[in-house]
UniProtKB/TrEMBL annotation:
InterPro entries: MobA-like_NTP_Trfase (IPR025877), Nucleotide-diphossugar_trans (IPR029044), WH-like_DNA-bd_sf (IPR036388), WH_DNA-bd_sf (IPR036390). The lineage of its organism: Bacteria, Bacillati, Bacillota, Clostridia, Lachnospirales. It comes from the Bacteria. It comes from Mediterraneibacter butyricigenes. PANTHER family: MOLYBDENUM COFACTOR CYTIDYLYLTRANSFERASE (PTHR43777). One of its GO terms (molecular function) is nucleotidyltransferase activity. Residues 23-161 form the MobA-like NTP transferase domain. This is MobA-like NTP transferase domain-containing protein. SUPFAM superfamilies: Nucleotide-diphospho-sugar transferases, Winged helix' DNA-binding domain.
């Protein structure tokens, strides 16, 4: 299933980088990385990829249960931010039509800004506030191959400049898109407004029999197995153990009464794991059900809690 949009958060750098807020820095009661994930989810982005490096394990623990995919830049100490962007774009090829990219040190823009950026038709959309540009940036995934092939200096900005395409600048009333990351007190000044804008219905949809046997985490596991043909690979992207993954799969098959994955022996490269046709159909039905429930919940929530409408 190809998503309309995916979120790409680069959080691989360390404290030696100039103008860098660490992913686990708390603004209010939650980390900056979690704040961005919640903003993306409120903007109805379900496919969220986080590129980690420094403090990777701690970041993965902080976001456990939020349904995000992790990609580790093991060479974060010797590579720049653009390399992490490339890793993310390479992974996302074929999974979405647009990508909403942000570095972790810009956490205070609103979901409304993200939705407005995604509503634009141009292939490159950049937000601005009082003539100052910022993040997140929306890129059409058709541009990914050219960006990935860029070998010059200057990072993503120069790679985009080399595309020679018209960039669309969306003027917003959102100061969070251009907040100075060196001035954490400025982030605090936006906290009350940003927290208010985060209010939204958040559903965790599960399927139960005698006990819960399928939820968003199991759905992500099946999705990643379908993409990677590897339980081990899926575990790496989810930051869970191989044993935990097989527990989820075995419990699912026991409750459904049929196989959802099949193992095929391989040669030197080892065997592969595929979803069965029944497994693919079950996943497709769950995702359709999940999307319809979330759409209804959001519509109903803002009809009843109309004071939060427009956020």
């Amino acid at each position: 299933m190809v998503e309309n949009a995916a979120g790409l958060i680069v959080a691989a750098g360390d404290e030696r980088e100039r103008e860098m807020i660490m992913p686990l820095t708390k603004i209010g009661s939650i980390s900056v990385i979690k704040r961005i994930v919640l903003t993306f989810q409120q903007a109805n982005i379900s496919l969220i990829l986080v590129v980690t490096g420094y403090q990777a394990l701690e970041v993965e623990r902080d976001l456990a249960g939020y349904g995000v995919i992790f990609l580790r830049n093991e060479n974060y100490e010797s590579t720049d931010k653009f390399q992490s962007v490339k890793m993310g774009l390479e992974y996302l090829q074929g999974t979405c039509k647009k990508v909403v990219y942000t570095p972790v040190n810009v956490p205070m823009y609103t979901a409304e800004t993200v939705r407005n950026l995604l509503s634009m038709e141009q292939k490159i959309v950049i937000p601005s506030y009082r003539d100052k540009v910022g993040h997140p940036i929306v890129l059409d995934m058709e541009l990914a191959p050219e960006i990935l092939s860029y070998q010059g200096e200057g990072g993503l900005n120069d790679a985009i400049r080399g595309l020679r395409l018209k960039k669309d600048y969306l003027e917003t009333e959102d100061p969070g898109i251009a907040i100075n990351p060196e001035r954490i007190e400025k982030l605090d000044s936006l906290l009350e407004t940003h927290n208010q804008n985060l209010i939204h219905p958040f559903l965790r949809i599960s399927i139960e029999k005698e006990s819960l046997f399928f939820d968003a985490r199991a759905s992500l596991l099946l999705t990643l197995i379908n993409e990677t043909h590897s339980v081990k690979g899926a575990c790496r992207y989810m930051a869970i153990s191989n044993g935990k993954a097989w527990t989820i799969l075995n419990d699912l098959e026991k409750n459904l009464g049929y196989a959802v994955v099949e193992r095929k022996q391989g040669g030197k490269q080892g065997g592969k794991t595929y979803l069965t046709e029944e497994g693919k159909l079950f996943l497709e039905k769950y995702r359709k059900f999940e999307e319809q429930v979330k759409q209804y919940a959001r519509k109903s929530f803002f009809e009843i809690f109309d004071e939060y409408k427009g956020q």
